[in-house]
Amino acid sequence: MACHLSLSITSLNVCSNVSSQKPCFFHKKINSLITKTSSQQPLYTKIISLCSSTIPYKDISYIHSLFTNLHDPDINLYNSLIRCVLTSKCKENALLAFLMYVEVMCKGLDLDKYTYPLVLKACVQLRELRYGTFVHAHVIKNGFALDLYVVNNLMRLYGVCGCVGSVCKVFDRSPVRDLVSWTILIQGYVDNGYLKQGVDLFFEMIEDGLCADERMMVVVISACAKLGDLRLGKMLHEYVKSHKLNFDVFLGNALVDMYLKCGECDVAFDVFREMPTRNVVSWNTLISGLAQRREFKQAMNVFNEMQDQGVKPDENTLVGVLNCCSNLGALEVGKWVHTYIDRNRIKVAGFVGNALVDMYAKCGSMDDALRVFGSMSTKDVYSYTSVIVGLATNGKARMALNYFYKMLEIGIKPNEVTFVGVLTACSHGGLVEEGNKLFADMWRVNKLKPQIEHYGCMVDLLGRAGLIDEAMEFVENMPIEPDASIWGSILAACRIHGKVELAEHVTEKLVDIESEKDGTYILMSNTYASVSKWRDALKVRKAMKRQKIKKVPGCSSIELDGVVSEFRRSDKAHPRSKDIYAMVEQLTFHLIGTEALSDGSESCIV
Fold first, then answer.
1. CB 303 within 8 A of CB 287
2. Residue-range definition of the domain harbouring residue 582
3. Considering 91, 170, 397, 401, which has the largest number of Cβ atoms within 10 A of its Cβ?
4. How crowded is residue 484: how many other Cβ atoms within 10 Å of its Cβ?
5. H or E element at residue 42
6. What is the pLDDT of residues 288-311, one digit of tens each?
7. Is 278 inside a domain boundary?
8. How many CB atoms sit inside 10 A of residue 297's CB?
9. What are the pLDDT digits (tens) for 20-32?
């Protein structure tokens, strides 16, 4: 019997060295050989231990069936089973692990220093503070409150649950702290929005004589990125260099993100190029960071380079690229991304689906936007908001409102952006009465406090409808101070409806708010011109010249073969500018010639 037992355990040890492609198959085969052995506990313990080392191990039902065959399992076996259950990282198994912990206590087994970190890990996965405080009480009662590994896991739990004060208390009460303790403490502050305090703790740790590692630097640099503190960022980058930390992909990604958020795109590119290894997250960080800086063309160039290097984009990449397409009006590239999504059988839902709807809507292709929207299996407030805003800006006011009411019918609660879209639809459709009702319903029904954007939509709605006196009354009764966009809407309405005196009054207010902007002067000049007050219009233009206020040149763009080209007045930056201006001259010549022929004058065509 002893020989049989020894042979079975030896066979299991062999299984632990076999390829892990199908570990469950090997374990079950061995298990079938030992079911008749009278002393099964050491063998089952070995099987469960092997399964717990297989990551991920999903056949929890098999492990559970083994466990139920055991009589009086010890704490080591429970630890192995809990560890095995937690490898799947799903909430159901995390709850199972916690229930096993309760079972251990009910059986009166003595828990050890390995049990508590595992159970606390389950609490972290569950995000359950109640369970965590329950475990903490038993940690103190059973004398493990000073064990460093247990302390670090307690801190992690409180940090994940947003209890920064508790993280700090556990840290302060621990007589021994290591670099992991400091990292968890700092991450607790940073993850919960206490960025400056987290950075201060980093420097406190340095003063205590500890050196940061790569993981801690990622945490601190991410805090710096959120703060937008370039000086601090450069200091942290220098720390990485001077202490010769391993420039791994995580640290590189954090530095790229930090420099982008601080507005140093060129430095971000340099760090990106210097990275010894890059993953898809590296490319995503660069693409999304450039998009957030509104460097959409650069972001698209990075995406093209990513494809050239054979890096397969993930869903985050596609969302970032679709965002760039939306802002550039690059419909053809957006369609290519859509084709890529379909070809790779990526589910059109969630962020990807919403980004597709938004891209088509902003590129003016509402039929495609609605087609994608209709194909989405699940729709949320962002899906509906993208459609509503798209329909509103594309002049389909009534259809936008129909989608809004449908959204309410199925129980999806609108957000602030949804109401911007709805009020914009009312403004473009001249739906004054409906707009007033919806604005009132924002707070009365949906408990959403109107922001400056919503007040601006209402002013625009009244102004477009010619109700300028009502618009002024609305502005005067606003609970918040009107900004330049509000007064700009009034001024635009004055230009449309020839209200010169009111336009002059509004212009004074606008000049006080933003005297350096050209838009106010141009609108006022155009208002004078609309009622044939040419001298006054000229005075405004001269005032602009005297104050050295230059009109920002308009920009037009066109997409050809997936490449977006931008043009401004007198712009010669385009690589084919000579060909373009030559074509413009030809077109001008033909237009003048055609006009001359229609007038019967041949002398113009020479």
1. yes
2. 555-599
3. 170
4. 17
5. helix 41-52
6. 999 999 999 899 999 999 999 999
7. no
8. 18
9. 444 454 445 545 5
| Residue whose tokens read 């406190």 | 204
Helix (H) or strand (E) holding 563: strand 563-568
Higher pLDDT, 515 or 101: 101
Q: Is residue 173 part of a domain?
A: no
Nearest to 341 by CA among 371, 311, 318, 358: 318
Q: With bands split at pLDDT 50, 70 and 90, how would you rate the model's confidence at 482?
A: confident
List pLDDT tens digits, range 322-331: 999 998 888 9
More confident residue, 357 or 54: 357
Number of structural domains, the chain? Answer: 1
338-346, long-range: CB within 8 Å, 24+ apart, which pairs? 338/372, 340/313, 346/315, 346/318
- As beta bridge partners, residue 560 has 563
Among 388, 329, 381, which Cα is nearest to 359's? 329
Give the per-residue SS3 of 398-465: HHHHHHHHHHHHCCCCCCHHHHHHHHHHHHHHCCHHHHHHHHHHHHHCCCCCCCHHHHHHHHHHHHHC
Collect all residues with Cβ–Cβ distance below 8 Å to 19 and sequence separation of at least 6: none
- Domain presence at residue 578: yes
Beta strands 563-568 and 555-560: pairing type?
A: antiparallel
The per-residue pLDDT of the chain, averaged, comes to 81
**Where do runs of H (alpha helix) occur along 208-346?**
214-227, 230-242, 249-261, 265-274, 280-292, 296-308, 315-328, 331-343
> Is 144 a residue whose pLDDT tops 50?
yes
Token look-up 């995406």 returns 303
Query: Which is more confidently placed, 472 or 506?
Result: 472
CA–CA distance, 112 with 100 (Å, rounded to integer): 14
User: Are the C-beta atoms of residues 226 and 192 closer than 8 Å to each other?
Assistant: no
- Return the amino acid letter for 353: G
Amino acid, res. 469: D
Instruction: Give how far Cα 566 sits from Cα of 135, 195, 336, 520, 569, Å.
Output: 62, 39, 21, 25, 11
Whether the bond into 553 is cis, omega within 30 of 0: no
- Residue matched to tokens 């809004």: 404
| Orientation of helix 366-375 relative to helix 350-362, angle to 10° | 160
- Concatenate the DSSP letters of all residues of 214-238 into one string: HHHHHHHHHHHHHHT-HHHHHHHHH
Judged against a pLDDT cut of 70, whether residue 545 lies above it is answered with: no
The amino acid that residue 562 corresponds to is G
Indicate the DSSP class of residue 243.
T
* pLDDT greater than 50 at residue 56: no
Position 102 in a domain: no
Provide the residue type at 601 as one letter: S
Sort 530 into a burial class: Cβ within 10 Å, 0-12 / 13-18 / 19+: middle
State residue 595's pLDDT score.
47
Q: How far from 273 is each of 37, 233, 267, 290, 301, CA to CA, in Å?
A: 61, 18, 10, 15, 15
Phi/psi of residue 410, nearest 5 degrees:
-90, 5
Q: Quick one: average pLDDT of 60-80?
A: 68
Q: Which two tokens stand for residue 262?
A: 């601080």
Rounded mean pLDDT, 498-511: 73
**Gap between the Cα atoms of 75 and 112, Å rounded:** 8
Number of H helices, E strands in the chain: 33, 2
Joined tokens for residue 333: 């590239």
CA distance 237 to 234: 5
Burial class (CB in 10 A: 0-12, 13-18, 19+), 208: exposed
- In this prediction, residue 502 has a pLDDT band, given cuts at 50, 70 and 90, of confident
